[in-house]
Amino acid sequence: MAPLSKLTVPELQQKKGKEKIVALTAYDVIWARLLDEAGLDLILVGDSLAMLVLGYENTLPVTLEEMLIFARAVSRGVRRALVVGDMPFLSYQVSREEAIRNAGRFLKEGGCDAVKVEGGEEVAETVAALVRAGIPVLGHIGLTPQKATMLGGFKVQGKDLASAQKLLTDAHLIAEAGAFALVLECVPAELAQKITEEINIPTIGIGAGPFCDGQILVLPDLLGLFEGFRPKFVKAYASLAQEGRRAIKAYLEEVKKGLFPGKEHSFTLSEEVKKALGLSK
Ligand code: KIV
After folding, report:
1. 254 is catalytic
2. Ligand 1: which residue has its CA nearest to atom 4?
3. Distances in Å between the alpha carbon of 66 and those of 42, 131, 138, 141, 184?
4. What is the pLDDT of residue 3?
5. Residue 207 CB neighbour total at 10 angstroms
6. CA of 25 to the centre of ligand 1 (A)
7. Ligand 1 centre and the CA of 1: distance in Å?
């Protein structure tokens, strides 16, 4: 089979206005492979893994070292899609030097093609420095979970005129800083449409309506694997938590009853060895 070539940043950008960009998060090699084989354009190793995989309360505690473990696992399973490593809290805010060094680790050690940083005006200079260093950056504005407390919780952003104008300005600044695309999270659809029309890089929406250049969802939400709070913008395309529960229960019952493993799941000795061990009837 001929090797699949990696999607490049310019190829992804050329989809703007022509073809929807389809993105999902992934945290391990099994799902990364399935997503890539399905033809996803972009796979984000999101810091949402802090809650979904590591069981933290929010995204703040996850470390760069932890993110790199998952980034490596995902990138090992991907041949075509662009793999983006999510820079965890405090890995890019302290200084530009630290941001470049830490972002570089996603490319050098994590096998990623790009990094994502949250924020608008306050990170625009950092985005520019990363791009100058040769690190492709995916921006992320709107509801930025690393600042959820400051934003008043997990709420739709840009609903009033002042905050809508601030998001428009932020979008322009991040695009001008050289980000190759921009995630818009929890933004009214009309505002996301205006941003999409005004900036020259693709917008990738999550809870930002249908007019963005692409869409991203968190994989466990799409699979119906996460049964906690389900935001309005999430569509579960499967009920894997239910199916998983059913399978685990069936296994438990079959083991208790001695129905599993059966003959078809067991290894057997040859007649010769059985005879020598005195096991033949
Ligand atoms: O960490 C994450 O999963 C994300 C997506 C919500 C875009 O940032």
Report:
1. no
2. 46
3. 21, 24, 20, 24, 25
4. 58
5. 23
6. 7
7. 33
Report how far Cα 87 is from the mean position of its chain's Cα atoms.
11
Query: Which domains does the chain possess?
Result: 9-238 (3.20.20.60), 243-276 (no CATH)
Tokens of 118: 């949250």
Query: SS3 breakdown of the chain: % helix, strand, coil, rounded to 5?
Result: 40, 15, 45
User: What does the pLDDT average to over 137-160?
Assistant: 92
At residue 2, does pLDDT exceed 60?
A: no
Number of residues that this document lists for the chain: 281
> In degrees to the nearest 10, what's the CA dihedral of 235, 237, 242, 245?
-120
Q: Whose CA is nearest to atom 8 of ligand 1?
A: 46
Between the CA of 242 and the centroid of ligand 1 the distance, in Å, is: 24
**What residue owns the CA closest to ligand 1's atom 6?**
218
Contacting residues for 94 by C-beta, under 8 A, at least 6 apart = none
Structure tokens belonging to residue 151: 């934003």
- What pLDDT shows up at residue 115? 98
Q: Label each residue of 176-244 as H, E or C.
A: HCCCCEEEEECCCHHHHHHHHHHCCCCEEEECCCCCCCEEEECHHHHCCCCCCCCCCCCCCCCCHHHHH
Angle between helices 64-76 and 96-108 (to 10 degrees): 30
Pocket of ligand 1 (CB under 6 A): 25, 44, 46-48, 86, 183, 185, 206, 216, 218
Strand partners, 182: 139, 203
Q: Which of 37, 121, 185, 264 is catalytic?
A: 185
Average pLDDT value for residue range 39-49: 98
pLDDT of residue 125: 98
Q: Are 77 and 106 spatial neighbours (Cβ–Cβ below 8 Å)?
A: no
